[in-house]
Amino acid sequence: MIQPNEFDIDTEKGNFHFDTNYAFNAGVGLNEEVVRYISDVKQEEKWILDFRLKAYQTFLKKPVPTHWATEDLNNIDFDVIRYYLAKGQQPSRSWEDVPEDIKNTFERLGIPEQERKFLAGVEAQFDSEAAYSRMKDDLEKEGVLFVGSTEGLSDYPEIFKKWFGKVIPTSDNKFSALNSAVFSGGSFIYIPPGVKLTQPLQAYFRINAENFGQFERTLIIADEGAEVTYMEGCTAPKFETSTLHSAVVELVALKGAKIQYVTVQNWSNNVFNLVTKRAIAEEEAEVRWIDCNIGSRLTMKYPGVILRGRKARGEVLSIALANDGQHQDTGAKMIHAAEETSSNIIAKSISIGKGRSSYRGLVKMPKHLKNCKNNTECDALLINSDSQTDTYPAISVQGDGNSVQHEATVSKVSAEQIFYMKQRGLSEPEAMSLCVNGFVNDLIREFPMEYSVELKRLIDLEMEGSVG
Questions:
Q1: Which of helix, strand or coil describes residue 406?
Q2: pTM of the full structure
Q3: Which segment of 93-97, 365-369, 449-453, 459-463 scores lowest on mean pLDDT?
Q4: Domain residues for 287?
């Protein structure tokens, strides 16, 4: 494990940019020719092109869901976004073969170091395509697959195609339709029956270009009795113009399998982060989403689990921090579709300055099911008088044998607490950081060590300048 003193993290870590010459460029704006260009560059089969074109028509028909969260979505201009930029099509298997400008980017972010120290495999995506992808040799011998979505579609269609677009339909929402039309990059992971990974796999997503949209597509399948932890991180430089990130993530946990999906999102404050994440859990399977959202201008993210098998379990643990000019609209969805299923949602948010955090939750239990259980806790902490928080729970429970409990709290940092700690030598920002870290500490402990240390440091830095 990486020890705490090995981290050197600051809020400007991702705020740098290298000029890049792209070999493939779909131009500005979205139309059918752009969709065909992406498919042609990737040399895809006809059924994939047909899938993209149908999704594009769905995208055009669906309205921007302003009722869903915020009028800020109307500020997205789809006609000025670049939908595909790539240096090349095949990710390098050796770090030395990565193009120099991309290598400099990821070395500055510490990706090679993390891979050497604690990862079983890593994929690093730069704009539209993975620039580097590698997994430990012993996992390959066990039949584990960890490649980009493009390789998954072309090299393992018998596995990929069965679940592709089945967990999240193209028509789910406007942004899932957009992703389905122009998707590029992302991870395809398959863990064979009974294989239990003791080290995590990680993907890192980097937006480098201005006026860019990143649309990775991730599919993770854990076969019967398999176990995997997948971690993703993301950054982008700060530009004056808006950037769009719209991913689709589908997880499939078959009988007795376990998937843990960890996200630390620290996009710059010009990024619209609009993603759709959902899992299917079969009999006695378990899916855990562990989610932290610190960056972006607007995040809309509600990881969900469809509990389709008896005794399946789903869990979402999330932290959201909204500073000035940010809206973190996050939550969870739990759909109970089999008996004796259980779900747990714990969400904590911090609003600073004029930041706004929102919790949206959906729990659904049909009347024909029995012995289903859900626990939901959403707690909000307000730092300043101008900060804002909202809670929008939707709970539909029918039948006599199911149980749900929901708890929500909103609190402010106590002036007495701050005064007490200042009397013992702490500065006001240090005292505030201590209060905030205490508020989220029980959730931060659920993150892998190498992420939990980073989160605490990031929270400390977010507190600087927030008092007064």
A1: strand
A2: 0.87
A3: 93-97
A4: 4-301
